[in-house]
Amino acid sequence: MACFAAAYARCQAATLTRNALGLDTEEADIFVIEPNDKRPGCVVGMSYTFSFVGNNRSGTQEVRCATVTSASGTLTFRGCGSFGAFTVP
Hints:
The chain has one domain (about 1-89). It has one helix at about 1-10; strands at about 15-20, 25-35, 40-50, 55-65, 65-70, 75-80, 85-89. By secondary structure, the chain is mostly beta strands. Strands 1-2-3-4 form a 4-stranded antiparallel sheet, with helices on one face. The chain is globular.
């Protein structure tokens, strides 16, 4: 988490992957930081992939996030399209 927050502060390319498994679900969240060539600052993106085990239903959604903050070992992504805010412990 600290490395990803530091990369955001320096606007350096970085990727963070979070996988979560439920009783009948699988979820993968991929967060990406990329330098922005067209204006100052970074581009922060999130790709959310889910599937329901056993019924062949799955999907992917990609959004951009406005900011990333770090506190107490967690990252909070804000302004992430329909997700709003998203915290990664």
